[in-house]
Amino acid sequence: MVRLLLRFSEEQVPQPITSQVILEYKVPIAILVAHINSKGGEILAEVPDEAQEKIINAFRKRGVSVTVPKLIEVDAEKCFSCGSCVALCPVEAISIDKDLSVEFDKEKCVGSTCSICVDACPARAIKSVKQTNSEQPANNRKK
Amino acid sequence: MKKLVESSGVEVAFKEVDVVTTGTFGAMCSSGAVINLGHSDPPIKIEHAWINDVEVCHPGAAVDLFIGATNMSEKHPFEYGGGHVIQDLVAGKEVELRATAYGTDCYPRTQLKTNITKDDLNQFYLLNFRNCYQRYNCAVNTSDETIYTYMSKLLPRLRNATFSGAGELNPLMNDPDYETIGMGTRIFLGGAQGYVIGEGTQHSPKNLNGTLMVKGDAKKMSPEFLQGASFTRYGTSMYVGLGVPIPILNEGLAKKTAIRDSEIMTDVVDYSVPRRDRPKLRQVSYKELKSGSIMINDKKVRVSSLSSLKMAKKVSQTLKSWIEEGTFFLTSPVERLPTDSVFKPMRQTQEIPFVVSVMHPAVTCTENEEIRAIAERIVTKSVNHIVVVDGAGKLRGIVTSWDITRAMAEGKKALADIETHNVVTAKPDEPLEIASKRMAQHNISALPVIDIDKKVLGIVTSEDVSKLLGR
Question: In whole angstroms, how far apart are CA B99 and each of B57, B96, B351?
């Protein structure tokens, strides 16, 4: 799955753009986070890898700004499980497990659109990294 | 020990247990290392020195240096500092040393640049002035802005809390009368054997805030238990793993080492108040802190540990295994830690001004008043700012003479059209300098002073500030 950050302008808010894209391309789009009011807003959506290109194009064709947010990754070598990040995470993607290690749930994390934990890590073990398509290595992926 | 005392009682526990091992792994800023470089040829009497661009202190003769954990790299401040230098050296990495000197007849050299590893050093001692706080505050932020502190990132309006310390695993908490801990006590320090060399600075035993001063051979330590740390907008520090073995010499110690997190209380402190004595919001136990959330004013606040409980446990378990293997021998202290010393505040021969000392009564109005009446008040009271309050005297907004002028020009009649609701304010116990900075930051010339319930106490203007601070 690939996460996309969709930005809607004031004029686009009343239009059923996301529904249109889903219906036209018959692609399931999961909405992870949405902040929208009458002035505009953002949706963090998740789409299947293989549909990434056409979904990006479909939204862009309709004038929606599409960016690929970075993922948050934890360097297990550097993390010494202090847990400073745990209470900061708004989606509770970080927890302390039974053996007192800090556990990071990539599925729950909303990525660089949040990043609240990154500058709070004293070990500097949390980083934003570019999303990579699971089927192709990052270095020969088309942008 | 804790379980045994609970299940079988103190008497049995005293007979069965010889030693209780403890541990903690937290950010300990008053840490550092003494190194001796040996002499260069021609020799140098170092005046200033840097390791990996972190300035190190030159406290003694020619080639002795002290690497302070909180000194920051000149190239990468806030990200790399003395703690990281120590960790890199301990890990066996090569670091770059630069030094300058004024040159003497006996030490003629004035410039030096070389690369060194720990094997090149004569001595490399960890020497920490203050480690192992017995317990520590829980930090929160009640202000409207995120603050970055040595207690890490504190989100506005009580959206998170942080705490530090291992609670029931903390060395000093298990021997609160310091019966077995003092100068000469052999301990676990940074993955090797070290020693307590006395009480730490700010040692405050009467209110259970004891500290340790420790020393150990850093060449034998491990980078796992000594880790450089970066606190955004605060600076760098070092996480230190420290464990103390407590021999169960009497039933009293059996009872004391059975202490539980639920019995260890600490204060929830509001770090948004930039003062020495910050407001304490409540008392909380380490059991609650470790549960992941605490209640403050009926609000559930998620709380994180800053020190690593996982590593604290690893410290105490490693120490236990050393004792069992017979590679670590307990010592009795030559002199016990003081139990009656007091941690005094600084003597200040110059007082600094606070908002409360310059604020004066605010000229106010209510929202149902006409602009004309407010304009008259500006003239008769000769002020530039009118604070809008409700019936209870609580802040609603602010109107300036400029707003009134604009209203006249644009033909506006209602106060609601010109009133600013998003008001930048000050608190009475804030240092004036901080309030002054806030005015400059927002490009405004006055701040209503309010209490925690938003009641208007007065106003402080840039004129008040310039009169007092002379700028």
Answer: 11, 10, 39
Report the topology of domain B355-469. CBS-domain (3.10.580)
CB A31: neighbour CB atoms within 10 A? 11
pLDDT digits (tens), chain A, 143 positions = 888 999 999 999 999 999 999 999 999 999 988 889 888 999 999 899 888 889 999 999 999 999 888 889 999 999 999 999 999 999 999 999 999 999 999 888 988 888 999 999 999 999 988 876 544 444 444 43
Helix axes B432-442, B462-469, angle to 10 degrees: 130
Nearest CA in chain A to B152: A120
All domains of chain A in start order, with CATH? 2-67 (3.30.70.260), 71-129 (3.30.70.20)
**Residue pairs spanning A and B at CB distance below 8 A:** 72
Task: With H, G, I as helix, E, B as strand and everything else as coil, classify residue B119.
Answer: helix
Assess: ipTM above 0.90.
no
Outline where B29-92 has alpha helix (H).
82-90
Contact A84 B230 (CB under 8 A): no
Helices B371-381 and B401-410, packing angle to 10 deg? 140
Chain A residues in contact with chain B using a Cβ-Cβ cutoff of 8 Å: 80-88, 96, 99-101, 116, 119-120, 122-124
**B10-38 CB burial, b ≥16 within 10 A, e <16:** beebbeebebbbbbbbbbbbbbbbbbbbe
Torsion, Cα of B382, B383, B384, B388 (10° steps)? -130
Residues of A in contact with B229 (CB under 8 A): 122-123
> From edge to edge, which strands make up the β-sheet containing B293-296?
B280-285, B265-270, B138-140, B161-163, B299-305, B293-296
Chain A contact for B164 (CB, 8 A cutoff): no
Alpha helices (H) along chain A:
17-25, 52-61
pTM: predicted TM-score of the whole model, two decimal places: 0.86
Cβ–Cβ of B230/A120 closer than 8 Å? no
Tokens of B66: 């002290």
The yes-or-no answer on residue B106 being catalytic is yes
Contact check, Cβ <8 Å, B25/A80: yes
| Single-letter amino acid code for the residue at B354 | F
Residues in chain A: 143
Task: With beta carbons under 8 A apart, name residues in chain B contacting A85.
Answer: 304
